[in-house]
Amino acid sequence: MSRYRFCLCFVPLLLLAGCGGGDFSDIQAFMEEVRAKPKGSIEPVPKFQPYEAFTYTASVMRSPFQPSVKIDILSQHKGSGNIKPDETRIRQFLEGFNIEVFEMVGTLSNEQGLNALVRGAGGVHRVKVGDYLGRNNGRIVSIKDSSVDVIEIVPDGEGGWLERPRSIPLKERT
User: Fold this and answer.
1) What is the mean pLDDT of each successive set of 10 residues along the chain, which is 174 residues long?
2) Which residues form a coiled coil (predicted)?
């Protein structure tokens, strides 16, 4: 039994003795370098540039991804003096969005008549004849099973106003 105890004590000592004797000069040099630095010499925090917000100002202009409207100069109609948008009426919610974002997805019918369902502006909205849609004073003039017809009042570029017909077709499921 004493031989067993001797082995239990002697073998770990031999293993520990084998771990010593290495070259620790690189660690000693690093420790001397760290000890040589003065206490409390922390590098200052780098200066960060403050974030400068960007304001997009071209949101009221025509989208560059939509084709431009071709205007034939010879057949261009002059604006009429009696056509102009009604500036006194209260604007509806759907007038805050471009008409290009809307697509017709269905119709509803009840006692009051035919209503259209248009998707855009963050959801599906129910519209009827006489409602306004889009940023160019677009008034809904008729609702069919396959489309919503809108008349927009747009400037003619010479101080007058023109009525421009638009149609929002029914989007078929794909």
Assistant:
1) 66 63 84 82 82 78 70 54 82 90 91 90 91 91 92 83 90 75
2) none
Distance CA 88, CA 79 (A): 21
Q: Which residue, of 40, 59, 78, is where some domain finishes? A: 59
The structure tokens listed for 38 are: 């003065």
How much is the pTM? 0.54
Residue 52 shares a structural domain with residue 99: no
**117's tokens:** 């369902």
For residue 18, tell me if it sits in a domain: no
Instruction: Write out the residue range of the structural domain in which residue 50 sits.
Output: 25-59
Q: Could you give the strand order of the β-sheet that contains 103-110, starting from the edge strand earlier in sequence? A: 103-110, 113-120, 123-127
